[in-house]
Design brief:
Number of strands: 5
Order of helices and strands: EHEHEHHEE
Structural class: alpha/beta
Strand order of the largest sheet: 1-2-3-4-5
Distance between the termini: 23 Å
Number of domains: 1
Largest sheet: 5 strands, mixed
Number of helices: 4
């Protein structure tokens, strides 16, 4: 399953964000696409942390996060999310495939 977050997330809509991310709580493999996110707030970070904790308690693998904007990458690095998630610059999915098999293209070296 892939979840994409738009260029900027309005921090005043946490219930909507949770509703959109909730289906990802139980899937086996999860990719969170932040490649287009130029700015994220504490609302998104809190939701990602809740998602991560829920998945860990149920023995599910950590979600992959794709991020390529420097601000977002630095925020994840400084907040410790790089240790909680597998963060990559990009991924390649075969045509017509979901996340299985998933070929990782490049992992950022600082996270």
């Amino acid at each position: 399953m892939m979840i994409s977050v738009p260029g900027a997330w309005d921090s005043y809509r946490p219930e909507e964000l949770h509703r959109q991310i909730e289906p990802a709580y139980a899937v086996k493999r999860l990719l969170i696409n932040l490649a287009g996110a130029r700015h994220v707030t504490d609302t998104l970070l809190a939701e990602l942390l809740e998602l991560r904790n829920h998945r860990e308690r149920r023995g599910l693998e950590a979600a992959l996060i794709v991020v390529n904007w420097p601000f977002v990458r630095n925020l994840l690095e400084l907040s410790g999310f790089g240790r909680l998630f597998r963060v990559f610059d990009s991924v390649e999915l075969p045509a017509g495939e979901s996340l299985v098999p998933l070929r990782l293209i490049r992992q950022h070296s600082k996270i």
